[in-house]
Amino acid sequence: MTHQARINTVVESLTKAPRNIAFPERNGQLQSVSEIFGQNVFSLKEMGKHLPKPVFRNFLNQLRGNLTLDKQTADAIAHAVKVWAIERGATHFTHWFQPMTDSTAEKHDSFLTLKSSFAGGFEEVTALETFSGSQLLQSEPDASSFPSGGMRTTFEARGYTVWDTKSPMFIQEGPHGTAILYIPSVFISYNGEALDEKSVLLRSSEVLNKAALDVLSLIEEYDEDHPRPKHMFTTLGTEQEYFLIDRGLYTLRPDLKITGRTLVGGLPPRHQQLEDHYFGKIPTRVLAAISECEYELAKLGVPIKTRHNEVAPAQFEVAPIFEEAMLAVDHNMLTMDVLHRIAHRHKLKVLFHEKPFRGVNGSGKHCNWSMSSDRGDNMLDPFAKPEENYRFLIFLVAVLKAVQDHGDLLRAGIASASNDHRLGAHEAPPGIISVFLGSQLNEVLNAIEEGRPVNYDATGTQLQDVRVKGTVLDLKVATLPAIARDLTDRNRTSPFAFTGNKFEFRAVGSKQSVSFPVSLLNSAIASTLQEVAAALRKQAGDKPVASKEDQLAVIREYIVKTKKIRFEGDNYSDEWLQEAAKRGLPNITKSPDAFKRLLEKHNADMLRNTGVFSEAELHSRFHILMEKYAKDVMIEAQTMYTLVVQQVLPAAYAYRSELADSASKLKDLGLDEPEVKLLKELTPVVSELQDKVRYLEEVANKMNALEDIEELAFFAADEVLPAMEATRVLADQLEKSVSDKLWPLPKYTELFLNI
Ligand code: ADP
Ligand code: MG
């Protein structure tokens, strides 16, 4: 009986011993993380060691200037990396890329080559390991089997993966002590259209770089002590939330296996209401798995810094030290991949879905975002000297303007069938995008707007200390204080919050690749920086560099322009829904509506003008996202149908039959039969569930007959999801009333056991 499988698996899950691995030692002592860190990465330092000096210098020059590699340099690097990788057991290499599927793709090629020579009329074949510059730079996977949204058809399947020289190569351990060389790559079509996430991110970083440098040149003067920055880049720290549950129990839940979330199941009496899980003691088996992951990730040069229990039971978070966005994105993909694989070894299952369990918190991936120059200056660090606060404020207002103008686009960047369950569920930011700045910064902006001194009492005492120390710049119009970084309070309800020296985009989904939302954010900010640059030029007139007064005038202009995007209150409250509507901020609750915003003129124009997306690429994105949404919902509907018909209803039938048997036996004995009352209560629920699940099937069939992609997605949202919901309510009712020993599916209480 299946329910027996459930009980046995629960018991097993509690008695499994944690897996132990031997951490490497040196001189009888465990090696430190810093020793292990990056040992599987062909970093610049390794390159320097393995390459002739002039070749290495060429490579660095080409890297800095964003030039393509010449053949000679590529050949030399290929040879060096081949030797390095083979020494470490590599048998294969792969161009590792990120198609538009939220995951990574790889095709392995062996280093094996055959060389033939002819001696005495006989062909002699020699086997060798080779790897050429052209193999390093580019390979040609069949592009027709990846989503392209109509940009590719099967008969013109050519697509290229090209080494992204900004991301270093690395090896991952393969089977039986072998290894595989990974070459981080972008994936483009024969005509150069982006078929992946990363090429778009690269482009958006480049426009942001140019726009930010231009703004800097208008507000800063350079000399020998203060050289002009040559490059600006996006910094990114991705806090990854996830659930870890016992693998045995997971295998008994087809809904989790197929869709990543539970389609039936109700809350146990005790879940997260005692608030005792967040930052609690990490359970033993879980900790064993996490620390093995961290060890593997350290070898790959992924700088994991933080691990802790999250709010929901069985929920955890891992956070890295921030890095350049391109690398941070690769490292987040690796983190997810390694967590997935290592959890397996520990008989655990990691869930990246945004809302695997109804009623407890879902998972997000907070994207901590800022901009830095190659001099190491963070543009969003307010703790800079007061006279540099202008720079901070200019970049700050540019971000505000970008989020205000393109909030709906940002919403589109995080939309998915799975994230919809999380957004607006009163535990995650709602579908309204707004910016939280904190009381102090808010007061500073208000003071500048109103042309009055900052009211220190309104902003906390530490700020007053700054004033007392006399570091405040008096501009007559407004007093510009040095803003202390740690004074910003936290607002967990905001989708986009300033957190000290960076913005935290909290609405991003845990499962998705962050490339797309970050690319959209980069593009929007690049575009408003261009706008701010124009305003500065206008204000400055003939002067090449805008004066402090000019800068302040532009800052004030933008503070006034961006008032409606700022919100300091509770984003979960009903008042905010009304207030946001009054301000004209869109509240986008379902994904298909969000995707349509991609093509709205103000967004499409911006993405085209910045050169981040071509018209064709944008339409293809739109198509892929809509289609994926519809497919995801369809898979869920079909899974739910099977689950209810094959497991939930039969459990109810079995229980009813038990009750009926017992009732008739009691009746034969001339005794009262209270089971009849229960039977009478249960029967209408069972029949209604039968009706609902039949209706779900009908709706799914109707959906299958649709062809237009937009129609499909809206039908999924408006017809299929409500039909699933109606089914679930009844199934959950049965879960509560059917005898526990007949229930085949592990319940939330069991999935949430501390293991
Ligand atoms: P919090 O606890 O407020 O979320 P943390 O200091 O723990 O803040 O940082 C969270 C994440 O933000 C970490 O991954 C961290 O590396 C990253 N981070 C910190 N500074 C920056 C920055 N300038 N740019 C991007 N990410 C950053
Ligand atoms: Mg955070």
TrEMBL record:
It comes from the Eukaryota. It holds the Pfam family Gln-synt_C-ter. Transmembrane segments: none annotated. Residues 197-648 form the GS catalytic domain. PROSITE patterns: GLNA_ATP (PS00181), GS_BETA_GRASP (PS51986), GS_CATALYTIC (PS51987). Residues 91-192 form the GS beta-grasp domain. GO terms for biological process: glutamine biosynthetic process. GO terms for molecular function: glutamine synthetase activity. Belongs to the glutamine synthetase family. This is Glutamine synthetase type III N terminal-domain-containing protein. It comes from Syncephalastrum racemosum (Filamentous fungus).
